[in-house]
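ESCALATION

Customer reports they have been waiting on this structure for their group meeting. Please prioritize. Original submission:
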Amino acid sequence: MCWVERIESNIRKIDAVRIMRRTVFSIIFIVCILFIGGTKAEAAQTFKVTQKQQTIFAGAGDKIKLLVKNPHNKKVKYWVDEYYNGAKVSKNGKVTIKKKDARIYIKVGKKKYEVFIYVLSKKLMTKMRAVKKQIIKPGMNEVNRVKAIHDWICENCEYDITQKKKYSHSAEGVFFKGTAVCQGYSLAFYYLAKISDLDVLVISGISKLTSEEHMWNQVKINNEWYNMDVTWDDNEDKIKYRYFLVNDEINNKTHIADTSGFFGSKPRKCPRSYSNFKELYPDVMVYESRQDACKDIASKYRDKGIKTFEFAVSQESVDNEDPTNSFSFYIVLTQEYKLNISLPNVEQDKIAGHIIYRFVLVDE
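Update from on-call: job pushed to the front of the queue and completed.
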């Protein structure tokens, strides 16, 4: 091989090495870009816009996506209100939240939607999302989501009898201080219900018991509205369900609603109290009457040695019987069914048109 051929051969080898290096560097660069992009990119939370007027909550700096039905592929237009302008919205419905409330308008053909975005602090949104993750489980129906939120607030907050503590009139009082007045209770329920995909209202008015200003909620379950007063269900010793999903007849005995509305909403009519007990407690045995319950309890105690009982009886049947308490159970079980037991300590809850009883039988 002459010297010219040797030079040409070396040049080809150098070119091949350069091409290989460029290829490797290109692959590394692309991988780095994809990795960085994947770690930095945060998936925007999607909100389905299904009502002409809709309210959602977000934290300052959040990115969300507004999704509206458009089966006929009509032209969609998004724009921000001139006054409530705390957000930016793109042509495809991607919204970047600033530090103040925003109203987004959406037009699909001739249909117009209005989405109001309440901007809460990052701290509050983070806390609420953590609580939601803790108490709202996948597949929960509406009424069980409502009860989970109701019970969490009652278990984690106490009423501020001074009405002067910091944050007591806000949801922050519930989530960070564990103390609030009716406004804090109802706002906390409202916020948690909203981010749990429930239709909910805050109702302001007057308490007939104290003649003072008061605040409570209304919530929709299976397309029916119900009254809900978490504040008055929160007792020191245990949760009560006296104002859990009740009708207007019951609620209006102690509440006077401001019909002008609060948070842009007027009180809805609530003609019925919630009564689908089995939807709330699918595993609790329900008896037609206290007598039927005692008969089954005696049989299980005598034949199987079962001593712990939890069951329910309809409120209507109990109202038509003698007063139902621990002594009445004791009398029936010892005299009619001849059980040799001590007086049981009976716990009971009234909810969804039923009374739940819990007790343990103790041998005499």
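Sent to customer with the following note: Residues 24-42 have pLDDT under 50 and may be disordered.
Escalation resolved.
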